Amino acid sequence: MKTKQLQQFFKATITALSIAAASSVSAQAADEIVAIVDNNVILRSDLAHSISEFKDRFANNNQNVPEQFIAQQALEQLILREAQLEQVKKYNVNTDERALNEAISNIAKQNGFASIADFQKKLDAQEPGSYESLRYQVAEDIAINNLRQQIVMSRIKISDQDINNFLKTPQGQAALGTQAHLIHIKVSGENAQKSAQQISEALKSNDVNNVKNQFTNATTKVSVNDLGYRNLTDIPNELAAQVSSLQVGQSSTPILVQGDYHILKLIDLKSGDQKALVPQYQTRHILIQPSEVVTPDNAKQMIDSIYNRLQAGEDFATLASTFSNDPGSARDGGSLGWVNLGVMVPEFEEKMKTTPVGKYTQPFQTQFGWHILEVTDTRQQDMTKEYQKNIARQILGERQFDSELDNWLREVRNNAYVDIKDPYLNSKLN
């Protein structure tokens, strides 16, 4: 869940002690409906509370905003929220209890409470049911955010070519910590443009210092500076953009910056020092699953029998091929190949990490049935290229996320059924 989005969702609920007062207003029997959104309603008290939040927000920013505009923004926000909640119901998006408790705990801490229990006690002392109202609101916020992630991420398309192109840009290289060894040549004077073009061509076959001596004269000044290894983020954007297209030994075309011409010669290029070394385990296993014809007790007896045969010296691969209920690995003597951490269920992974090479485990149970696992080898695999591509994909995804989210929110709003009952609000908002 993105931090920025969480801040946006919970900004109102951070000052959660105000919920009690709002709850008291919403409980009034005379409360009226100001708008219908799909199958939900917006009450006058909902709008009053939203208007109050908007006023506080503008006041904190020293903004003097007309009441009509505040009412418009407040109601529009409520309409969009209800429209999203309708989508939450449509797609059956649920809120994880652990995530909800964590969010409530963070709100409690930000309001100065050591525990959720103390927070609940304070809220309910001010107005009975306030804590439950807050919890319900935060659960809705999390569900909306989960839906946004699912819908928007499914709309973001990033191709391998997009990733490769990004990694060649200064931004992509900078994200990977790439460093370039550069020679910077600055040409100034009356004939700077012509000389710079000649220098750029001459650099293909001549030494940098020779070029400097050749083209420096009474009207043209040529300076040469060895920049050493520099992160691309340390180089002005106008120059860094040229570096990404150069091969080692090549020079850029002349770049005009503030009246002078600049040329960059790429001496060397090296990637960041960070390597992504991932532990991998070469494993094989035997799986016995309970089924309609194999009871849980029978499955346990079968795996114990296989274990005893292994201890008696029978071949693991033969037993796996004969008895394992995992058809994919059974065809290959139980082999799962090289396995990364985070792929298998926790019980399987824990056995995989703690079993010495060449040894097999006692029977153990997971949600899939009973296993015997053997680790045949381990290694540290260099996954740097995959890691770099994942970084690029994440950056490109974040770039697209906000625009795609705006597009989706407009679609949700436009497709929602909205009936504003208050004539004053209707005239201002429609």
Automatic annotation (TrEMBL):
Enzyme class: isomerase
MF term (GO), any: peptide binding
Highest taxon, organism lineage: Bacteria
Reaction(s) the record says it catalyses: [protein]-peptidylproline (omega=180) = [protein]-peptidylproline (omega=0)
Signal peptide interval: 1-29
One Gene Ontology biological process: protein stabilization
Entry keyword annotation includes Chaperone: yes
Keywords noted in UniProt: Chaperone, Isomerase, Periplasm, Repeat, Rotamase, Signal
Localization per record: Periplasm
Listed InterPro entries: OMP_Chaperone_SurA, PPIase_dom_sf, PPIase_PpiC, PPIase_PpiC_CS, PPIase_SurA, SurA_N, Trigger_fact/SurA_dom_sf
EC number assigned by the record: 5.2.1.8
GO cellular component: outer membrane-bounded periplasmic space
Domain PpiC intervals: 177-268, 278-377
Function: Chaperone involved in the correct folding and assembly of outer membrane proteins. Recognizes specific patterns of aromatic residues and the orientation of their side chains, which are found more frequently in integral outer membrane proteins. May act in both early periplasmic and late outer membrane-associated steps of protein maturation.
HAMAP family for the chain: Chaperone_SurA
Entry domain remark: The PPIase activity resides only in the second parvulin domain. The N-terminal region and the C-terminal tail are necessary and sufficient for the chaperone activity of SurA. The PPIase activity is dispensable for SurA to function as a chaperone. The N-terminal region and the C-terminal tail are also required for porin recognition.
Protein name as annotated: Chaperone SurA
Organism: Acinetobacter equi
Gene this chain is encoded by: surA
